[in-house]
Amino acid sequence: MQSRKPGKHWSMTNPFRRAVCLLVIPICFQLSGKAGNVDQVVHLLEGKYQALKSFSATFRQRYENAEQVIEESGVLIIKKPGKMYWEYQKPAPKYFLVDGRKSWFYVPADKQVIVTNLQDEASTPLMLLFGKGDLRSDFQVQGETEQAPRVPGNWLLRLVPRTPQGDFAYIVLEIDPGTSIISRLLVVEPIGARNEYVFSDIVENRKVSDRVFKLRLPSDVEIVEQ
Question: For residue range 153-165, what is the model confidence (pLDDT) as tens digits?
Answer without folding.
Answer: 999 999 999 988 8
